[in-house]
């Protein structure tokens, strides 16, 4: 605690409390803490440094047909970095994928699509009002981006988190299937990802409210039923509930 | 032939015997496991003595690397002697040289002492093979032997008690030239020996060749006794089909292993009897005695039988299953010890499948696939399966192996990687045009087949002990006893290179000391314990006129296995970072804390644990240090030879259970480990320190420069069943294995852990930091997850079982 130059640390009965208004974060406390109990998550990287780190596992990418996936948060918030990083990946012969919620400005995807080998694209809720209710934004821009990306020819895997009470309805899956069939015929694969409540304790630890407090994971039979519907999209559907 | 690349079975249950096993095989398998009820046949040790008052039937140095039984050495010796049946010896016995006496004694036991038993329904016969044979020493030899044994023993006890390590002259741990017996039969082999006898007039060589000829006869005589027994049973048999089987067994045993095998059944019978007799001759029940590449040398028999319409796949499978069961009886004597101590994977009659041919092509065949089925269906420990993987292993075979690992909890299965293994064997100087045909023995120790005795577990050296000595001027930290040279007070070392140099000197001194003790064991066995029967099966012995125990094999080595490599690396890395680079603590405080086992120095201990770099994280600086640590002693070891036999020392990393055994006798170490906490295992990172994921561990191991440890490297990876829960992930394991062959060590075993282990991890996160689990579409370190998530994952794993 004395190590902190901003006096942001206080030891309380429940554990160390970090005053987030004061914390810079500068890493001095984490360096001073002998047990490694304090840790600054995240770091600053240049595209070259990140590539060096990623390239260490080259042999594993080669044998698995895999590569590096840039995920989030929302990576499309940092297009300049991504463009530079993806260019280096391509130069190094390492396949790169972008995992995105689809809500960035089209100009971002227009720049990034030619630089990546695969886009993992979230389609959560097709209906614009329902989407707004669940996420705070309308789905229009996401759907437009999805269709435009499909047209650009970049390989796409669609991903839909199955959250009971939000995305897990049959109408929603039917609507997304319809959208994929009509507007994204080149999609290679559609993953239905059963929601888990494993994020709940993380929110609590950060002192944040967890919006899905009462949501429960879907059952296997629910997943299987939704997967059946999803098959009507005509693309390969993965995730019937076995994939936990 | 069905080649299901990815099976439809999911790893929901514990690996179990297949329900498709034939009634016969189910019964034979069940009979093996009925340790408590099976009173009509037990393969317990049977001692046979010469009747002299100075007789000995048990060699402590055979068990020199099993220190937990040092305390029982005298009682084993005395009770076996007391129980020994006296064997009538032929006239003139005591006038013969030792090698001939040993052979005559062996033949006498095999001819009329060793019981013969054919279990109901068996197709491959040969039951009793656990012996303690007389050393057949004269009074003078016995006196000398006893004196030398006690000299070896007193030094071995010191080495063990101080945590330096252990050594012995361990039988088994090689691959005899069984294919030669299959091709020529013992009669054909004997003809070659007769030719060799006519070549020169060396009396020592002639004695050995005569002894080997006696061994060849003994094999035929035992087979005859099985033929007699089969005929006797056939006469009394009322079931016509069993009667026919017994008649066929009798026919086969009249033929092999005397004559060349011609059918698959004959080949398996010849193989088993030849193998079993090595255990009789060495008085050593199984450990490390390995069949090698059986899918290669049995294949011609399988192929010609199938082509001639004599054999179909089902019949071949059942024969193999009967053969498989036989190997398990090597450990029958442990069966009633108890469920926790009885059955152990610490043995290993290692059978090798797949791998490359002479030109790098893949050598797998239909028999490889059939044997994989047998392994999966039988769910038995032995013969311990190993698959050789290489750049050109076909995708479908790799998928089959990955699927099997996923479904069998991974536990019994070893994967050996050809490219890195062969690099080491070439470094060692084995012929470049032969190394493609290598196979591992015992746990994972690489050797050639049929002409190589590399003493693969004979010496085990605790590398971390050298760290303790470098920090205390060569003295044991607890007792103050001097164990190594005076390298100076570490508080006076100006920089890290000075410290490293003290460590190297200590390690070299320990290596010299343990090798000196090993030389004693090697000389004992070479001088007093020839095994002519085994010499028949090891090329080089007949030509050189030297028994296999005397270094007669074409390739003869003694392997020093390094223990606690990563503990030593992390300790040195911590000294470099915390004391010299960052100067967070002085050497004085470090030494004081280590001597106090960190009592009152918790902050320092936490700093060492969390603020120093670790091996297994793909950190270039640590990996360079690791390479220095490894090559510093492995290259030294290779410069040394055992004077009695000329066998050269070579290195490897297999630490069996010593990483646990030497934990209390190794002081606290600068990586933050307290005395008593386990040392690191094989080439694995220290438990809990590999926080950058399995690919980083594999890369770090690959950076070690392992050629100079040609015996091979033990690496165990723990995975959660959830990581292998579906076909997509099993195929990712297959890709991981392929990449391992490019960048990793020589051998890998995968543990697929269950809820029980997860609970242990939850209770003790510090030592389980490396445990990976699949959370949802991604992998996470179990220990780093919140309690709530942990409970959820435990619940979901528990539900799978």
Radius of gyration of chain A: 21 Å
Topology-level CATH name of the largest domain in chain A: TIM Barrel
Biggest chain-to-chain interface with counts? A-B, 27 and 34 residues
User: How many helical stretches of chain A?
Assistant: 10
Strand content of chain A: 15-25%
CATH architecture descriptor of the largest domain in chain A: Alpha-Beta Barrel
Distance between the termini of chain B: 31 Å
The profile of the biggest β sheet of chain A is: 6 strands, parallel
Give, in spatial order, the strands making up the sheet with the most strands of chain A.
3-4-5-6-7-8
Overall average residue pLDDT of chain B: 92
Stretches of chain B where pLDDT is under 50 for at least 5 consecutive residues are 1-12, 338-345
Structure description:
The complex is a heterodimer of chains A (244) and B (801). Chain A has two domains: 1-43, Alpha-Beta Plaits (2-Layer Sandwich), CATH 3.30.70; 47-238, Aldolase class I (TIM Barrel), CATH 3.20.20. A six-stranded parallel β-sheet of chain A has the order 3-4-5-6-7-8, with helices on one face. A two-stranded antiparallel ribbon of chain A has the order 1-2. Chain A is an alpha/beta fold and 244 residues long. Chain A is built from ten helices and eight strands. In chain B, 46% of the residues lie in helices and 8% in strands. In chain B, strands 4, 10, 11, 12 and 13 form a five-stranded mixed β-sheet that branches. A five-stranded mixed β-sheet of chain B has the order 5-6-7-15-14. In chain B, a hairpin with a 3-residue loop joins strand 8 (439-441) and strand 9. Chain B starts with 22 loop residues before the first helix and ends with a helix. Mean pLDDT of chain B is 92; it is low at 1-12 and 338-345. At the A-B interface, helix 3 and helix 9 of A face helix 21, helix 24, helix 25 and helix 27 of B.
């Amino acid at each position: 605690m004395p190590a902190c130059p901003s006096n942001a640390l206080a030891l309380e009965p429940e554990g160390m409390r970090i005053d987030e208004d004061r914390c810079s974060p500068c890493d001095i406390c984490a360096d001073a803490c002998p047990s490694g109990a304090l840790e600054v998550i995240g770091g600053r990287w240049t595209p070259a440094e990140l590539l060096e780190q990623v390239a260490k596992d080259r042999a594993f990418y080669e044998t698995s047909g895999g590569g590096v996936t840039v995920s989030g948060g929302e990576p499309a918030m940092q297009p300049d970095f991504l463009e530079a990083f993806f260019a280096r990946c391509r130069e190094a012969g390492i396949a790169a994928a972008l995992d995105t919620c689809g809500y960035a400005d089209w100009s971002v995807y227009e720049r990034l699509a030619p630089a990546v080998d695969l886009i993992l694209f979230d389609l959560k809720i097709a209906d614009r009002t329902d989407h707004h209710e669940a996420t705070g934004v309308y789905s229009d821009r996401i759907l437009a981006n999805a269709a435009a990306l499909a047209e650009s020819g970049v390989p796409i895997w669609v991903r839909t988190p199955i959250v009971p009470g939000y995305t897990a309805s049959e109408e929603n899956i039917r609507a997304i299937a319809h959208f994929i069939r009509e507007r994204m015929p080149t999609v290679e694969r559609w993953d239905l990802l059963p929601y888990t409540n494993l994020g709940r304790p993380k929110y609590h630890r950060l002192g944040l409210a967890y919006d899905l407090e009462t949501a429960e994971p879907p059952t296997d039979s629910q997943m299987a039923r939704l997967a059946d519907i999803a098959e009507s999209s005509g693309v390969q559907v993965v995730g019937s509930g076995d994939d936990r | 032939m069905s080649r299901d690349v990815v099976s439809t079975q999911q790893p929901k249950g514990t690996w179990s015997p297949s329900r498709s096993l034939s009634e016969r095989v189910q019964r034979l398998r069940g009979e093996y496991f009925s340790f408590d009820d099976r009173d009509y046949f037990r393969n317990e040790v049977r001692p046979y003595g010469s009747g002299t008052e100075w007789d000995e039937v048990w060699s402590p140095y055979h068990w020199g690397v099993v220190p937990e039984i040092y305390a029982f050495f005298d009682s084993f010796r005395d009770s076996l002697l007391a129980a020994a049946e006296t064997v009538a010896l032929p006239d003139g016995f005591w006038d013969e040289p030792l090698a001939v006496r040993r052979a005559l004694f062996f033949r006498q036991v095999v001819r009329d002492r060793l019981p013969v038993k054919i279990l109901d329904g068996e197709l491959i016969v040969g039951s009793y093979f656990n012996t303690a044979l007389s050393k057949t020493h004269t009074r003078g030899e016995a006196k000398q032997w006893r004196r030398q044994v006690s000299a070896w023993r007193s030094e071995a006890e010191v080495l063990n008690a101080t945590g330096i390590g252990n050594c012995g002259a361990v039988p088994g741990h090689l691959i005899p030239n069984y294919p030669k017996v299959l091709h020529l039969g013992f009669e054909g082999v004997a003809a070659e020996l007769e030719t060799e006898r006519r070549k020169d007039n060396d009396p020592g060589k002639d004695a050995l060749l005569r002894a080997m000829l006696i061994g060849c006869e003994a094999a035929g005589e035992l087979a005859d006794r099985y033929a007699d027994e089969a005929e006797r049973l056939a006469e009394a048999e009322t079931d016509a089909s069993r009667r026919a089987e017994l008649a066929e067994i009798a026919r086969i045993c009249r033929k092999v292993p005397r004559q060349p095998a011609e059918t698959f059944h004959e080949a398996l019978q010849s193989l088993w009897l030849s193998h079993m007799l090595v255990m009789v001759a060495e008085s050593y029940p199984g450990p490390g005695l390995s069949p090698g590449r059986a899918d290669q040398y049995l294949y011609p028999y399988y192929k010609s039988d199938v082509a001639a319409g004599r054999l179909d796949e089902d019949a071949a499978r059942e024969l193999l299953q009967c053969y498989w069961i036989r190997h398990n009886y090597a450990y029958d004597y442990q069966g009633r010890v108890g469920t926790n101590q009885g059955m152990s994977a610490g043995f290993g009659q290692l059978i090798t499948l797949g791998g490359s041919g002479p030109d790098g092509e893949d050598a797998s065949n239909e028999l490889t696939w059939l044997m994989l089925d047998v392994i999966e269906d039988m769910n038995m420990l032995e013969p311990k399966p190993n698959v050789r993987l290489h750049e050109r292993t076909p995708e479908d075979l790799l998928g089959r192996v990955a699927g099997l690992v996923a479904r069998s909890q991974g536990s019994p299965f070893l994967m050996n990687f050809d490219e890195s293994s062969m690099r080491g064997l070439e470094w060692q100087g084995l012929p470049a045009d032969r190394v493609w045909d290598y196979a591992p023995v015992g746990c994972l120790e690489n050797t050639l087949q049929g002409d190589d005795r590399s003493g693969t577990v004979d010496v085990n050296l605790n590398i971390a002990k050298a760290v303790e000595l470098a920090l205390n001027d060569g003295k044991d930290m607890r007792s103050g006893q001097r164990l190594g040279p005076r390298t100076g007070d570490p508080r006076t070392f100006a920089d890290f290179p000075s410290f490293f140099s003290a460590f190297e000197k200590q390690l070299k001194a320990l290596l010299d000391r343990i090798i000196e003790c090993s030389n004693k064991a090697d000389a004992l066995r070479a001088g007093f314990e020839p095994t002519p029967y085994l010499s028949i099966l090891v090329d080089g012995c007949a030509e050189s006129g030297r028994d296999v125990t005397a270094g007669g094999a074409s390739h003869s080595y003694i392997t020093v296995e390094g223990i606690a490599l990563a503990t030593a690396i992390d300790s040195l890395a911590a000294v470099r970072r915390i004391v010299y680079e960052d100067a967070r603590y002085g050497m004085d405080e470090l030494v004081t804390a280590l001597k106090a086992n960190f009592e009152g120095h918790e902050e320092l201990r936490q700093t060492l644990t969390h603020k120093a770099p670790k091996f297994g994280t793909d950190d270039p600086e640590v990996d360079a240090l690791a390479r220095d640590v490894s090559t510093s002693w492995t290259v030294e070891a290779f410069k040394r030879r055992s004077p009695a036999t000329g066998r050269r020392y070579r290195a490897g990393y297999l630490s069996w259970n010593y990483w646990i055994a030497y934990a209390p006798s190794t002081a606290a170490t600068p990586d933050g480990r307290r005395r008593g906490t386990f040392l690191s295992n094989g080439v694995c990172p220290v438990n809990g320190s590999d926080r950058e994921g399995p690919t980083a561990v594999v890369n770090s191991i690959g950076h070690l420069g392992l050629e100079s440890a040609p015996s091979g490297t033990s690496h165990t990876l723990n995975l959660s069943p959830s990581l292998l829960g579906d076909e997509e992930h099993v195929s990712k394991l297959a890709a991981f294995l392929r990449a391992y062959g490019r960048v990793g060590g020589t051998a890998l075993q995968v543990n697929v852990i269950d809820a029980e282990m997860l609970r242990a991890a939850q209770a003790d996160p510090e030592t389980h930091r490396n445990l990976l689990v699949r959370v949802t579409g991604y992998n996470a370190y179990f220990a780093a997850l919140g309690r709530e998530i942990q409970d959820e994952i435990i619940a979901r794993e528990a539900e799978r079982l």
